Amino acid sequence: MNQIDYHANFLNSISDISEDIVEELLKISDLKTVKAGNQIVKLGEIPSKVYMLVSGVVRCYISTESGKEFNKSFYLPITFVAPLTALINQCPSIFVFETLLDCELYEVDYKKFMELCKKYDDLNTLYTKIIETVYITYEKRLVDLISLDAKDRYLELRNEIPNVETLIPQYHIASYLGITPVQLSRIRKKNGSC
């Protein structure tokens, strides 16, 4: 399968996109390899790119003035990664996006992407569906934080990312769940995940 077919299949799983539009998208995209531990979006940066993660894991976190980090999200292939509010409002990002593993990703110029959305209805529909998916994911995360205890949040994360313990360090998982690494260790022992 060539590059265009591969990306067309992925994008068509979200919304119908022609090969011509995929070719247009590839023209405004750069395939990059980013080593683990690198920030693809920095705190306070006004972003201009959106990323499609092909391989690896990216985390999104917020940092307090004292330097404590709180993980908001984990991204696995194949997903779109960006500080959406900062992109749309062209304001500094309050989030940091960092690679947890070596990643391969497409870096897409957001402004050029939006220009293509005005030109192609199919691409605009794709963008709308991606935004809807992002909103649904955030809403579910909020409901989980409000309604589930730490053990159930952990089990839900394991359900969403079955091999989470091999992909993501324990202290990042604990931060995402809103608990300490010690609490996570106890939950894992009780649930047979040592």
Automatic annotation (TrEMBL):
UniProt-listed SMART domains: cNMP
Q: What is this protein called?
A: Crp/Fnr family transcriptional regulator
Domain Cyclic nucleotide-binding positions: 13-116
Q: Which Gene3D superfamilies match?
A: Jelly Rolls
Q: Which CDD domains match?
A: CAP_ED
Pfam families according to UniProt: cNMP_binding (PF00027)
Superkingdom of origin organism: Bacteria
Record InterPro entries: cNMP-bd_dom (IPR000595), cNMP-bd_dom_sf (IPR018490), RmlC-like_jellyroll (IPR014710)
